[in-house]
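=== RUN LOG ===
request id: a7f3
mode: sequence -> structure
chains: 1
length: 149
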Amino acid sequence: MSENKTEVTIGALVLAVAVGFVLYVGQTTGISASTGGYQISAAFRSAEGISTGTDVRLAGVKIGTVTDMALNPETYRAEVKFAIEEGIEIPDDSTFAIESEGLLGGQYVEVVPGGSFDYLVDGDEALDTQGAVSLTSLLMKFVATGSSN
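=== RESULT ===
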């Protein structure tokens, strides 16, 4: 009888861990059942370091996530789509920039609000973007400049 209780307890524990793992994967990849909010897009020269599920932040607060990324074969720019939380109004002259959390941290999309009284709505495209800055290329420029002296 005690073997049966042990098997049930272990089975319940394995099931709880599996459910927790699925929830964790859903959160980190940006997959969710809720599609609340609105979609906007932006084209970046370089979208290095971000992927589906990456945070979109305004003043350091998460206001959305990256939902899709694709290369535009005509412009050779990264077309990125964002899901922004309902109730967050972003001026249409805002800047979307790919920023780093630190030297070894991850990347996120920072929204720098503009001063317009017109706001982005579902399906709009943000026109002012700043792509990712490659730390490797910056270091290579620094090393090349230092060795030429």
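=== NOTES ===
The beta strands are 38-44, 55-58, 61-72, 77-84, 95-100, 107-112, 125-126, 128-130.
Helices lie at 2-29, 135-147.
=== END ===
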